[in-house]
Structures are given as C-alpha cells and as structure tokens.
Design goal:
- The chain has 330 residues and is mostly helical.
- It has 2 domains: 214 residues, 3-Layer(aba) Sandwich (Rossmann fold); 81 residues, Orthogonal Bundle (Tyrosyl-Transfer RNA Synthetase).
- It contains 14 helices and 5 strands.
- Strand 1, helix 1 and strand 2 form a beta-alpha-beta unit.
- The protein is elongated and about 80 Å long.
- The structure holds adenosine-5'-diphosphate and tryptophan.
C-alpha cells in the first residue's frame, strides 16, 4: 500500500511562482510514488466571507491552475472540499474533543483576531479542527505544507492521538510534514521584501502574460552595482539570482555570477534574461490554464471523479469513526 499524501489550498487569488516552485512542482513529482489527495479548501475560505458571486470562479481558477501545472487526475485524487460531506461530519465529531483554550492559543487564530477583530467567528476558531479533518479523513501520512502551517499540523496530530486514546482505537495514523529536501526553497519577491506571496502583493502569477511578467521583472529592486571584485551580494541581488537559479540553465547563472564578480554586470541584461526564462516556464502553463478553463466538460469530469474517489476513501474512515464513537444501526 502506498503512503498517503494530502494537501489543500484555499481558493483565494491566483497561483504565483512561490506556490509553483515551493509546492506544486513537488506535488506533480510525487504523484506516482504516493497515493496523493489534492483538494481545494473552499470551506476554509468561508471564514473570510467571500462573495457568493465570485466563489465558484475562484474555485474553478485554482482547479484549472492545478491541472495546468501538471496535477494529473489519472494519478492523484483532485477534489473540492465541500464535495465531501464526510469531512464536515468528522469535523463535528473532532470538535467534541477540541478545547477552546488550545484553539484560542493557535498563532494563526491570534493573528486573525488582531487583524480582523470585527470577524472573530467560530469557523476561524475551529479552523485547525477542519484542517485536521481534511488530513485525517484519508488517514494521511504526509502533509506537504509551508512552515506557517506547522502548528496546524501539530494540532492534527494531537486530535488524532486524542481520538485514538479516548476511544481506545487505532483509526488515525499520525500525520507528518513532508519536506521536499533540496527541492523545498523559499521563492523571494522582487520588491526587496523577502518572500513572494499573495498578501505581499509582489507575485509573479502563472496566469500573467509575457508583457506583465517582463514589466514586473524589469521593475525589480536592485542596487547601484558591485563596487569591488568578489564582493558579497546584497539581499535584493541575491533574490534575483535565487529566481534565476530556479528558471535558467546553470550556464546562464554562471555567466551572470562571473559578471557580478568582475563588476561588469548590467542589471538590465540580467532582468531581460530572467524575464525570458520565467516566461519559458510559465507561458506554456498559462496556455493550458486558458484551455482548461474553457473546457467545462473536462473540468466537470475531473471534479466528479475526484469526488467519487475522495468520498470512497472518506466513507471507509467514517465507518470506523462512527463505530468507535458508538453509533449503531437500529
Ligand atoms: P501565499 O503565501 O501566497 O498566501 P499560500 O500560503 O496559499 O501562499 O501557500 C500555498 C503553498 O505554496 C504552501 O505550500 C506554501 O509553502 C507555498 N508557498 C507560498 N509562497 C511561497 C514562497 N514564496 N516560496 C516557497 N513556497 C511558497
Ligand atoms: N490551512 C492551509 C493554508 O492556509 C490550507 C489547508 C486547509 C490545508 N486544509 C488543509 C493544507 C489540509 C494542508 C492540509 O495554506
């Protein structure tokens, strides 16, 4: 039996190069080695009350982007969270073993309370319970998530162990963070602000066209150039090289590295090359996104098959969970 990998993403915004190189590309790579579940966390996104008129389009956009980047419904189970009612049922049951104090102490919750004091809803408080339900409903072994989700994953382990102990069963394995080793990198932004991210507003998106990408790269923050041979690179320049290493050939990287070292580097040339090499990777994906977004029959089939597979796996878990809890048929 293959070990189970699961990851979810909230349908807010578009996927950027950070999502692609930090997550998606690895999700694609491991599809044959593991039983993979990749889902769109539409229930989670309701904590921020998205407008009903935009909701479906947001889910569809992320789904098309996942598929265009190489997630393969023939290899992995790709589904929409709200299509699997077993997730919500497990959430109710796990909520009975989740304590207010521990939920209130969650860093992400405290952060949200601070930022949006007008919308501290119970869904926000129990966000980690819903996330644990996502993970445990398929009895997942591995969860590839960024550092910011470590605490949520730890809570999933706590709830899994607590359920097993409380009911004296071995229904849930302990899920662990999946680390992609040398493949796990932090993609920097080009505005000198560290990480590329949605909320940072510095994203280069898979859906961006050539003109947009070129404009974003040409605007990247730089310095006034190296002043002495072999001097260390300041962060903003290191960021450019980090991106270059992701998208360009080793020869190209070595070429600009030499130019940096002997102080003959021209940032304009570096940026032009970087923009061209980003485009070489993302434009074919963009083409596929546009194609897939217009293929409603294909999307409907992917979603239906994903739902069937996910529900089958989830129903098998819920059967054991319900038995453990003491539900019996009349
Ligand atoms: P964002 O930071 O834009 O809100 P998410 O938190 O939705 O992105 O991240 C989804 C996935 O993409 C996570 O696995 C996360 O680790 C990865 N990811 C996001 N930004 C980056 C980045 N700049 N570098 C590497 N991985 C990233
Ligand atoms: N909380 C995750 C995020 O914000 C999204 C998510 C929901 C998730 N359920 C999950 C990630 C289960 C991994 C596993 O990025």
């Amino acid at each position: 039996m293959k070990e189970v990998v699961l990851s979810g993403i909230r349908p807010t915004g578009q996927l950027h190069l950070g999502n692609y190189f930090g997550a998606l590309r690895n999700f694609v790579r491991i599809q044959e080695q593991y039983r993979c579940y990749y889902f769109i966390a539409d229930l989670h996104s309701l904590t921020t009350h998205p407008h009903p008129a935009d909701f479906h389009a947001n889910v569809k956009a992320i789904l098309a982007q996942y598929l265009a980047a190489g997630l393969d419904p023939a290899k992995s189970c790709i589904y929409i969270q709200s299509d699997v009612p077993e997730v919500s049922e497990l959430y109710v049951l796990l909520n009975m073993l989740a304590y207010k104090g521990e939920l209130e102490r969650t860093a992400a919750f405290k952060d949200k309370v601070r930022k949006n004091p007008e919308n501290v809803n119970a869904g926000l408080l129990t966000y980690p319970v819903l996330m644990a339900s996502d993970i445990l409903v398929h009895r997942s072994n591995w969860v590839p998530v960024g550092k910011d989700q470590d605490q949520h994953l730890e809570m999933a382990r706590v709830f899994a162990k607590r359920f097993n102990n409380f009911y004296g069963v071995e229904v849930f394995p302990e899920p662990h963070a999946m680390d992609f080793g040398s493949g796990s990198i932090k993609v920097p932004g080009l505005d000198g602000n560290g990480k590329m991210g949605k909320s940072e507003g510095n994203g280069i998106y898979l859906i961006d066209d050539e003109k947009t990408i070129t404009k974003k790269v040409m605007r990247a923050v730089t310095d006034s150039g190296p002043t002495a041979p072999d001097s260390p690179k300041p962060d903003v320049i290191e960021n450019l090289f980090t991106l270059l290493k992701l998208v360009s050939t080793p020869e190209t990287v070595a070429y600009f590295d030499e130019k940096w070292k002997d102080c003959s580097i021209r940032y304009g040339d570096l940026k032009k090359q970087l923009a061209a090499d980003i485009c070489a990777i993302t434009l074919p994906i963009r083409e596929r996104i546009l194609e897939i977004e217009n293929d409603d029959a294909f999307l409907a089939r992917v979603v239906r098959e994903g739902r069937e597979q996910a529900r089958e796996s989830a129903a098998a878990t819920l059967k054991e969970v319900r038995k453990a809890v003491g539900f019996r048929e009349f």
